[in-house]
Amino acid sequence: MAVVDLNWRRFTGFLLLREEFRGQSCIYLRTIPQEKILRVGETGDPWTRYKGGTAYALDAALHGSGNLFFAATAPQGEIERRSLEATLIYDLQPQYNNEHKDYPPFKPVEYVHRGDVPKGLRPSA
């Protein structure tokens, strides 16, 4: 697999992320206001995965917290996308992911950060 270019975009709520990435595969980060990463996630399409009240419940739970979401286009293939998610979880060790933290992924994915990179990460050269 080629190096994945993660061109991050910042969102103040999940509904905005879901609309922007409708019909697209993405990887996303949930952060505190200071942009420390709390959780890494992936989806083939946030519009279909988080439909109806689920996306609204996420935004309601975050209301007033100042927490943020960052998202980037991810590989379309589920295996590649989940390998990228596992690699990011292993590398970043986010507090609210409980899988993929103890051992390196079977197929690690190389990636670079671009765009609106969370403060806790360094943009790639």
What features would you describe in this structure?
By secondary structure, the chain is an alpha+beta fold. It has a single domain (4-115), classed as 3-Layer(aba) Sandwich (GIY-YIG endonuclease), CATH 3.40.1440. It is 29% helix and 26% strand. The protein is built from four helices and five strands; from the N terminus they run E-H-E-E-H-H-E-H-E. It has helices at 14-20, 46-49, 53-62, 78-92, and strands spanning 4-11, 26-31, 37-43, 68-73, 111-115. It has a five-stranded mixed β-sheet with strand order 3-2-4-1-5. Strand 2 and strand 3 form a beta hairpin. It is globular and about 35 Å long. It starts with a strand and ends in a 10-residue tail after the last strand. The mean pLDDT is 90.
Percent helix: 25-40%
Strand order in the largest sheet: 3-2-4-1-5
What is the averaged pLDDT score? 90
Count of all domains? 1
Extract low-pLDDT stretches: none
Residue share in β-strands: 25-35%
CATH top level assignment: Alpha Beta
Q: Main beta sheet: strand number and arrangement?
A: 5 strands, mixed
Task: Briefly note the structural class of the backbone.
Answer: alpha+beta
| Total strand segments | 5
Using the coordinates shown, work out and report the CATH topology. GIY-YIG endonuclease
| Cα radius of gyration in angstroms | 14 Å
Question: How many helices?
Answer: 4
Shape: globular
What quaternary form is this? single chain
Termini separation? 20 Å
Tell me what the CATH architecture is: 3-Layer(aba) Sandwich
Order of helices and strands: EHEEHHEHE
